[in-house]
Amino acid sequence: MTSITVSTAISTGRVQLVNVRQRSLLVAKLRVYLVAALFTFIGVVALCRIAWLGLAGEGADRTAEFDGQVPRGEIVDRNGVPLARAFPAYSLWFNPRALGDGPALVKSPAEVAAALLRIFPDEDLAALTAKLASGKPQYLRRRIMPEDANRIHALGEPALEFPRENERYYPQGSMAAHVLGYVSADGRGHVGMEQVYDKALTDPATRGNPAVLSLDTRVQGALEDELMRGIQMSAAKGAAGIVLDVDSGEIVALASLPSFNPNLIDQANVGNIFNRVTNQVYELGSTFKPITVAAAIDAGVIADMSRRYPSGAPLKIGGYEIHDSHNFGASLNVPEALIHSSNIVTAQIADQLGGLRLKAVMESLGMNARPQIELPAKGFPLWPRGEKGQWARITTMTVSYGHGLAVTPLHLASAYAALVNGGIWRPATLHKLAPNQIPAGRRVFKAATSARMRQLLRMIVVDGTGKKADAAGYRVGGKTGSAEKPGAGGYRKTSLIATFAAAFPMDRPRYVVIAMLDEPQGTQATSGQRTAAWNTAPIVGRVVPRIGPLLGVMPDATRDIDISDLSPLVANGEGE
């Protein structure tokens, strides 16, 4: 047998070679892992350092200041026109540690302040100097123009920085300022819908969707323009106005003048921030007379429009006397009483109606509570008190023609909507409503009573104190009101609140328009007259033709509400 011999030396050598290669590969892998771990560690350290620099040190001071600078969502009108939006802008920031541990400024604080004053002449030199000398990081000015930033850069002061931020901008300037409000330096909304929508406008989940208001900027502009013209013509202290959709309660325009510019809220005097429409209450005078008449018709107290009431002499109640502005004859019927604006006849109607029933109607119209509107500032009415909740006889009479009860112009607008829309009161709103969002409201007047009031209001404009509101083709109806303002020791005969409350078109009412002037004077432009017939009725007469086509109401001289059953009852003439 032949034996085969295998060399163990060769086998052993091959095994050793394999082991050496495995160890080399293992060492190489370990080195790669170590290098990768080292780079990972260095990266983590760098990221931590960056995060630390962002949250501490020089950045910490400014981060605290910028906490409120969250980009806000837009506010738009009912047609999508921007009313408030965010836009990128420069600010002037003082960083006293820009040069490290050295001096904050190259020049003295006084010299730098003087140089800044040449760029911004409206700044206060002493205040700027104090800020620069304080060594405290802070804003020196918000919203600066790029060319101003270039001029500041040329001063050669590294401590003067220009952070680019999201600022609030109101493209329409002062238009609808009392509705919008403003945003303060801390990024929070104040006064108007900026405050109401503050959370939604800053919440990342909702700020992408604009807040849509019921306003129409075209109508708002026309209303403000004509109210300002009224102020100038009558030398009045101020004005208020509303355009309200009678079927939904949506406010299409709301103006309080004088106004303010929310873009300049940091620099401007904001004394005009008070809203005359929703926050101030007034005795609105004879504009209440149609409400009293409607309540009496509803209750059956007025069943015959031709019935005559004594009017030739002042009405004496206890120690009081109720007068008319003129002597309109020995007697007046209801249409004539409204056309001439007779206090004497309205007081008699209210006396027959009784305080309980008149008070109940006023309560149904919301006149005993703050106006229902989204705005934060809402005035509480001056509501008459009586024994056990009952009004005194004289109180019932004076309230019937708008004295002794003070409400906001918005209260009046909502009441007139109920007078003409079929008798339904709805809360006013600044939200644009879809058809399925319109509230059902509550019935205050019968539909038949509302139909009669549309006739009577139209007659006041055709034949009575509202003639100057009669815009051709728009079938305007309404009522004047001129009330003396109360003061120390009684009413001030030289200070009036002049109001015209209107609706159009009266054959199918769509909108209520309220115009009010605070203390109009008898000027050459108003023929020396201070009353609503000469001051606020003309405002409505100019506003309606401007806004009607914008709202889909075209003039039509062939149409009007039928007043043929009432016209024969009226002997033409004018009152207040």
TrEMBL record:
InterPro entries: Beta-lactam/transpept, Beta-lactam/transpept-like, PBP_dimer, PBP_dimer_sf, PCN-bd_Tpept
Residue ranges annotated for the Penicillin-binding protein transpeptidase domain, each copy included: 242-531
SUPFAM superfamilies in UniProt: beta-lactamase/transpeptidase-like, Penicillin binding protein dimerisation domain
Transmembrane segments: 32-55
Presence of the UniProt keyword Translocase in the record: no
Annotated GO CC locations: plasma membrane
Subcellular location(s) of the protein: Membrane
Occurrences of domain Penicillin-binding protein dimerisation (ranges): 69-186
Protein name per Swiss-Prot or TrEMBL: Penicillin-binding protein 2
